[in-house]
Amino acid sequence: MAGASPRIVVTREIPQAALDLLREVGDVWWPQPDRALSPSELHEVVACADAVVSTLQDRIDAAFADAAGPSLRVVSTVAVGYDNIDVPALTSRGIVVTNTPGVLTDATADLAFGLLLAVTRRLGEGERLLRSRTPWSFHLGFMLGSGLQGKTLGIVGLGQIGRAMARRALAFGMDIRYSGRRRADEAIERELGATYLPFEELLSSSDVVSLHCPLTASTHHLIDADALARMKPSAYLINTTRGPVVDESALAKALADGAIAGAGLDVFENEPEVHPDLLELDNVALAPHLGSATVETRTAMATLAARNAVAVLSGEQPPTPVRG
Ligand code: DGY
């Protein structure tokens, strides 16, 4: 509609700075008070939208595009991961898809390393002990954890976040190995002292396996019972990417049986549900999908998402398109 202000639907509340950017170019709608929209509510509110700023909770597929109708020009997700988006279904309709890589790298790697420290040094277990008012006293064998110096970190997916995790691990004296779809540049391998290994070998030789690959059809349940059986009984698994990369039932069993030593998990197969067996185990550190959850990072993500949407609405190339 020539001259009409674009209709921009934001599916969850976003920081003011990002809203302000969107308001400069269109009429912005978002649920107030903030809440998750059901799929049918989502389809209802996106009708006739020119742009949708979405989150990883929204299922964005052909039905979504049909519900929005022909006005829709851009779906800008406030996330680096876009496994919730059927990119070909959108791009084949001429809808641009954008995400927010880069700005959450450090926050996510910090959280992954935090989970690693939490599980290897038994921080959650120690806190639960104190909060339960259980009597305790210092002694030399009390609540011993596992040190990181000289241990091997196996990174699955040496992208931006995997590399940031490796840099943190280097500062803790760890050796870096990695596996992935392809080998990293020589310069990156040199900087990180990282050795490329086939996935199976990475599993069997690492003291810590940290997952940084996206969720795709080929990484769904990449860590299954077989993969867990290849890991050392003294090894730890860290997952800050997407829950379904890990078969959660198999993981809970491996943790309960002592097939691996522990796990640190920020993401879950059926979020927001957490497998009930995991909740019973002491050798797992849990966080509710907090990887990018800092004020600075969420502001940067939302602002980048807004810039992406504004660019497409203005007929310009968005800063960070998803190449579908
Ligand atoms: C992402 O961006 O994909 C994270 O999971 C949420 O910040």
UniProtKB/TrEMBL annotation:
Domain of life: Bacteria
InterPro entries, sorted: D-isomer_2-hydroxyacid_DH, D-isomer_2_OHA_DH_cat_dom, D-isomer_DH_CS, D-isomer_DH_NAD-bd, NAD(P)-bd_dom_sf
Assigned keywords, A-Z: NAD, Oxidoreductase
GO molecular function: glyoxylate reductase (NADPH) activity; hydroxypyruvate reductase [NAD(P)H] activity; NAD binding
Pfam families (alphabetical): 2-Hacid_dh, 2-Hacid_dh_C
Name recorded for this polypeptide: Lactate dehydrogenase-like oxidoreductase
All residue ranges annotated as the D-isomer specific 2-hydroxyacid dehydrogenase catalytic domain in the record: 8-322
UniProt family annotation: Belongs to the D-isomer specific 2-hydroxyacid dehydrogenase family.
Record keyword Oxidoreductase present: yes
Domain D-isomer specific 2-hydroxyacid dehydrogenase NAD-binding: 113-291
GO cellular component: cytosol
PANTHER family in the record: 2-HYDROXYACID DEHYDROGENASE-RELATED, GLYOXYLATE_HYDROXYPYRUVATE REDUCTASE B
